[in-house]
């Protein structure tokens, strides 16, 4: 894929744009990684997420030599992977995160903190009402 010309950009703007060419985009070094028609897709060297960003081929771009290799693919988050496939659970279950522990308000057991009991004390009580408050 290195060396694949960006035909439209080369023909219309008369610049040596091709995939794999080193560029300096607005003072930041990077590599052309995609042909986006009227624009070139540049991955900046300092970009932690390695996202391809559109740049106009003449505006603020200085073309350099060919790179040895293309930058690695962009980092994908867990949420990106979750959205790529169909799951029968929500995102929290997909990540296997424990749900927050709940407290229940008990009318018959007074407490100095508004009748709230800690989670471990609720384990011994029968289920009388649904959970009302998150434990801090």
Q: How are the SSEs ordered, and which strands pair?
A:
Elements: H1 7-13, E1 21-25, E2 28-36, E3 39-44, E4 53-55, E5 61-66, H2 78-84, H3 91-94, E6 102-103, H4 119-122, E7 133-134
Antiparallel strand pairs: 1-2, 1-5, 2-3, 3-4, 6-7
Tell me what you see in this structure.
- The chain has 136 residues and is of the alpha+beta class.
- It has a domain at 7-66.
- Helices cover 16% and strands 24% of the residues.
- It is built from four helices and seven strands; from the N terminus they run H-E-E-E-E-E-H-H-E-H-E.
- The chain has helices at residues 7-13, 78-84, 91-94, 119-122; strands at 21-25, 28-36, 39-44, 53-55, 61-66, 102-103, 133-134.
- The strands form two sheets. Strands 4-3-2-1-5 form a five-stranded antiparallel sheet, with no helix packed on it.
- A hairpin with a 2-residue loop joins strand 2 (28-36) and strand 3.
- It is elongated and about 75 Å long.
């Amino acid at each position: 894929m290195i060396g694949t010309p960006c035909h439209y950009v080369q023909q219309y703007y008369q610049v040596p744009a091709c995939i794999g060419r080193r560029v300096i985009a607005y003072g930041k070094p990077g590599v052309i990684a995609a042909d986006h028609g009227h624009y070139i897709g540049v991955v900046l060297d300092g970009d932690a997420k390695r996202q391809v960003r559109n740049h106009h081929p003449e505006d603020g771009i200085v073309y350099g030599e060919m790179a040895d290799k293309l930058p690695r693919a962009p980092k994908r988050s867990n949420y990106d992977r979750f959205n790529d496939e169909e799951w029968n659970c929500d995102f929290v279950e997909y990540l296997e995160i424990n749900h927050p522990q709940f407290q229940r308000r008990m009318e018959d057991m007074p407490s100095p903190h508004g009748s709230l009991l800690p989670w471990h004390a609720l384990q011994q009580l029968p289920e009388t009402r649904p959970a009302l408050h998150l434990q801090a």
